[in-house]
Design a protein that fits this description.
elongated; mainly alpha
Length: about 70
Amino acid sequence: MFIIPLLLGLACLAFGLALATNHKGFRDRLAASPINLAPGDTKVPGTFKAVGVMATILGMFMTLFGIVFAIFS
């Protein structure tokens, strides 16, 4: 049971880091994709970066929770 929060935390951490650091143009591809609700807006890359940073923080907490949960279960 402890593996679920650990895997979710690692997935969120990986997604957040890829989005925050623009790994291999990931953020640029998302800004150009249909998921972007405001194409051409100058604030879109900053918004995707902020979302990436928040996902990274959430992923760190989820991963730490999964590790602590695995140790004490």
